[in-house]
Amino acid sequence: MTSRPGMQLARRPLHFFLLADSSGSMAADGKASALNTAVREMLPHLRAIAADSPHIELLFSSLSFSTGVIWHAERPLPIDDVVWPDVIPGGYTDMGAALCAVAERTSVEAIGSRALAPAIVLVSDGQPTDDFDHGLTRLLDEPLGRAAVRIAVAIGRDADREILTRFQGGGEPMLAHNPEQLVRSIRLASTAVTRAASEVAVPTSGGPVPWSISDSEPGEEVW
């Protein structure tokens, strides 16, 4: 947070959303544990972006989706106040319901007319078990949802990369086949979408965000 006179009033809200798959398949091979570690290691990088961007107020929201959706906090939190709760795997993969939930929180009524386009990161290791098309349509029907900067992280070979590409609006999702790649991918994806959203004065369209480091570094393929 900046202490420069008048700057706090000039800041525009930038909402960051993290959608974390907590379905039963995330229990295999330590994927849920690796995800929890990756998010905790990501948070300091988002805090650094917020500290270096006095024109934005970075607000963090996260949910886990399995059989249904669970928001981790009742309202968006300033990034400095975020404490990540462990994702506990179990159940199906209600990705469509997760997108519907985010759509509700990206409405102008929910986040205000001064908000920048949101940044959204979706992390999943499988395929939707509910109506993904309906969820994506709901998100894109919201002007700010449609303008959102979106990136997906695919965990392992069983992740539905075609679905994740559609979520992004094109481009290959980032790939993680082991815990080290997952930490790196979530950090890169989160910082990429946040920087992109914060640097666009009047966002008009979402879609894939380029990153400068390849997401296919060699490593043991655990997942």
Q: Residue share in helices? A: 25-40%
Radius of gyration: 16 Å
The helix tally amounts to 8
Indicate how many domains the architecture comprises. 1
CATH topology: Rossmann fold
Roughly how many Å apart are the termini? 39 Å
Number of strands: 7
Shape: globular
CATH class: Alpha Beta
Helix-and-strand structural type: alpha/beta
CATH architecture: 3-Layer(aba) Sandwich
- Beta-strand proportion: 15-25%
Structure description:
This protein is an alpha/beta fold. The chain has one domain (10-199): 3-Layer(aba) Sandwich (Rossmann fold). It is 38% helix and 19% strand. The protein contains eight helices and seven strands. Strands 1, 2, 3, 4, 5, 6 and 7 form a seven-stranded mixed beta sheet that branches. Helix 2 packs parallel to helix 8 and helix 3 packs parallel to helix 5 (132-141). The protein is globular, with a radius of gyration of 16 Å. The chain starts with 6 loop residues before the first helix and ends in a 24-residue tail after the last helix.
Element layout with pairings:
Layout: H1 7-10, E1 12-21, H2 31-51, E2 56-66, E3 68-71, E4 77-78, H3 95-105, H4 108-111, E5 119-124, H5 132-141, H6 143-147, E6 149-155, H7 161-168, E7 174-176, H8 179-199
Parallel strand pairs: 1-2, 1-5, 5-6, 6-7
Antiparallel strand pairs: 2-3, 2-4
List keywords for this structure.
single chain; 223 residues; alpha/beta; Rossmann fold; 8 helices; 7 strands; globular
